[in-house]
Design brief:
The chain is built from eight helices and six strands, in the order E-H-H-E-H-E-H-E-H-H-E-E-H-H. With 251 residues, it is an alpha/beta fold. The chain has a six-stranded parallel β-sheet, sandwiched between helices. It is globular. It starts with 11 loop residues before the first strand and ends in a 6-residue tail after the last helix. Bound molecules: 3-methylbut-3-enyl trihydrogen diphosphate (IPE) (2 copies) and magnesium ion (MG).
Amino acid sequence: MKPLDPQKLPIHLAVIMDGNGRWAQQRMLKRIVGHQRGAETVKMVVEQSSLLGIKYLTLFAFSSENWSRPVLEVRALMTLLKKYIRQETARMMRKNIRYNVIGNRCDLSDDVNETLDEAIRKTAANTGMVLTLALSYGGRQELCRAAAHLAQDVVDGKLSAGDITTKLFDSYLDTGGLPDPDFLIRTSGEMRISNFLLWQLAYTELYFTNTNWPDFTINELHKALNDFQSRERRFGMTGDQITERGDLSND
Ligand code: IPE
Ligand code: IPE
Ligand code: MG
């Protein structure tokens, strides 16, 4: 495999971690075993991304729509989430990683929110990678919340409708302050976005692999990043313009 060019890594990598259930079912195991194995892949991807110098890693861990799953699966996922955060916070401190959460936290139980708050507080001063967990997250729901908040600010006279630009709207999203993802990886062979970061993925390079999340390895991550490095990002311009400019920003 080609070595990675450290200058051409995504600044923000987003991942739809999919296929835990099928991984387990193919082995006659319970779906939760797939989620447990998936948590090991999370550790690897967090560690590798931070080692590579990726500045922002965003993981789709639980969607707004995932609340419709069987109660026992939802409960098991929440228990696993709490266990993961508690176990990993010390490592996040050693690796200088800062936790961040996007999604509708009102839907999460008090104990999950307390665990998240503690991890966010403890890692708040870390200056390395920002690890964003998308929990109870849905892109449409996020856009609605942002629109409602913006409308309220107009009603309150803090701004007028004419002030609304893409940049301002961006700051009302849960991801306000984060750059848009440069690269999105989705595992398990599904080629859809499933309501993830609908606004933010406008110019993201997409990568799909058939591998289920628990089987996703360091090699696969490097293969995906190699693929990213071979892409030409044009942001609506021509290839020649991009070559002349020699940069990859979309501002
Ligand atoms: C991803 O794996 C984890 C979550 C959505 C929480 P799935 O649980 O969706 O696995 P499949 O897609 O059923 O195989
Ligand atoms: C997307 O996976 C959500 C997460 C990875 C957390 P799903 O498994 O929920 O997506 P669909 O239902 O197959 O689109
Ligand atoms: Mg799935």
